[in-house]
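Predict the holo structure. Ligand: guanosine-5',3'-tetraphosphate.
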Amino acid sequence: MHRLKEIERRRTFAIVSHPDAGKTTLTEKLLLFGGAIQVAGAVKSNKIKRSTTSDFMEIERQRGISVATSVMGFEYKGRKVNILDTPGHQDFAEDTFRTLTAVDSAIVVVDVAKGVEQQTEKLVGVCSMRKTPMIVFINKLDRVGREPMELLDELEEKLGLTVCPLTWPLGMGSELKGVYSLLTKKLILFRAHSVQDEDEAIVISDLADERLDNIAGSLAEKLREEVELISGVYPEFSREDYLAGELQPVFFGSAINNFGVAELLNCFVDIAPPPLPAPTDERMVDPKEEAFSGFVFKIHANMDPKHRNRIAFLKICSGVFQRNTVYNHVRLGKQLRFANVTSFMASRTELIDEAYPGDIVGIYDTGNFRIGDTLTEGEQFRFKGIPSFSPEMFRYVLNADPMKSKQLAKGIDQLMEEGVAQLFTSEMSGRQIIGTVGPLQFDVIQYRLEHEYGAKCRYEPASLFKACWVTCEDPAELERFRDKKKRAMAVDKLGRLCFMAESAYSIELAKQDFPNIRFHFTSELT
Ligand code: G4P
């Protein structure tokens, strides 16, 4: 059946890395392989290179790019591959976390010299929590880096992965001769070339083969020793374990030289999962179900400040999404029809009539959507797993232009719906507190309030450590807690109770004094 075939051939994933490890470069090489772009350099890096907080033009430029490259789709070997872009700057990490809720698998890029970095840890942590299948690509082999074994140890220790190398480097830096595929027993010779090209490969099924010595000289012996060691140390590849998030294949290469990338892509399209069932508050939804359902994981304000249109990014979870069809907006209880729906193919967007599970479509929105919203054909359920994380930076927000208080309220409301930051209202003082994951967001908010809503805000420092949502099975106990901690209590945008802790110690203390109260660090209170 056409629909089931379409679902089966979709591969929707994200590439994640610490900034500078090579995510943009790898994305571009994959797009070149897929024929989605023709020349290198077509994908602009979406990172804010100089992260000076006053560099607003850079922020705006980045926002522009990130719409165009939000989803990059291409065809490869009969598969429809959808790469979901994630922001490069760590202050936008929360955007990345949410994007990870819309993917079925991930590729993690690690710099061979730098190893596991801070952002890698956070992002892999989110994937592990969700049991997302991951493939690791160790990049920049054309530079001298760390010993492969040492890197694999680090992946296991710092990221808690169970790695399974599928290629192994033969040399590194200026000594780089190639990579040996442990699966196909082919030696892929290194040749720097930045465009799509078939790599030169030699089948060496027995490593004792003399040709290896001719090619690699003294490195041949090292490869033999390492390959023997690997087979004793690491588990054999099992697709089942990979799909369960329990085993992570590792590839070595150099994205900029387009080296090792074909092996990665070919393996990816072979093993990566098609769209997976998605959890809702009522039941699991299978992609193969006939009735359409999907959720919004990202909202992007239009770049034209005169029109407050936004694009809501909808991940299709089941059935077939059709343009101009009436769907049920579960949170609002409204029936909505969408005429203006786009799909994304590399940096082109085009109007579409239908989309399948695994696909992402952009819907032009005039204010109906909020991150996490579910659309169905009528059934009442909401997709789960699109949490907000406890913010860690806080400022009181004040109106700097009393004539524009309405604009300010509207602007703040919409920016919060877009997921730029979270808003809390102190129960005692009624003051509004904005919480973010990075300092840059405060400047983004101030800038966008002024330029898109004509409102001015200023900030006052709030010395808070973390906002945690609190719940308790016993309402009386919750009331006691609320009363005792009244100076630290606030409500979030949905009216849920939050404890605004001043320090890690105050959370510990509160936990000790109120053992029945549950403290939640993501907004999904389960
Ligand atoms: P990111 O999206 O993860 O932040 O990384 P990006 O691809 O932008 O790559 C970061 C830098 O690393 C870039 O250099 C890029 O050219 C370089 N790079 C990527 N892959 C490789 C590789 O395999 N080998 C080597 N040697 N370098 C690699 P840049 O100087 O920051 O930027 P650019 O001026 O080259 O664009």
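Confidence is low (pLDDT under 50) at residues 48-54. The chain has three domains: 11-72+85-271, 278-376, 387-524.
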